[in-house]
Amino acid sequence: MSPEPAGEVVRTADGRDLILNRDLPVSAGEAWKWVSESERLEKWFGTWTGSGEPGGRIEVTMNAEEEESTSSGEITACEPGTSYEITVGTGMGDWYLGMAVESRDEGARITFTQHLDEETPVGSIGAGWEWYLDRLAAAIENKPMPDFNDYWPSMGPYYENQ
Questions:
Q1: In whole angstroms, what is the distance from residue 24 CA to residue 27 CA?
Q2: Residue 63 and residue 126: Cα distance in Å, rounded?
Q3: Could you tell me if 18 and 145 are in contact, meaning their C-beta atoms sit under 8 angstroms apart?
Q4: Predicted TM-score of the model (pTM)
Q5: Number of domains in the chain
Q6: Which residue among 9, 35, 96, 157 is least enclosed by CB atoms within 10 Å?
């Protein structure tokens, strides 16, 4: 069974925002650790090193791809325990990413946002972040990691048509 896409693409004054939510069966404090601490982030995405405050430079190494890749970035905003925004240089230009954590009755909700310009192809990006956030949920619940082939290319049209 293939996962269903759950994100949305919202028009903004500067382009578009890709927004994805995940409800997690842990407290907001625990969810924050999974999206901010390198040791936990490594279990589903990759690692980071550097200065973890606004204006701080970081190196992000993605380890879930076929080949590890490292990118430089900057933390542009951070409210510890609540949210952060980073700018990361990639082979496709700079990516502007945000992560927010909020408490829910049954755990926590994370909201991931990527700011996109009009030319950025959102199909593979949306599918990729769906996969990563499902990897996060799998890591928290100690379940097997999902297969990217279940996300791409099947989710591409969903995101491209929004």
A1: 8
A2: 19
A3: no
A4: 0.95
A5: 1
A6: 157
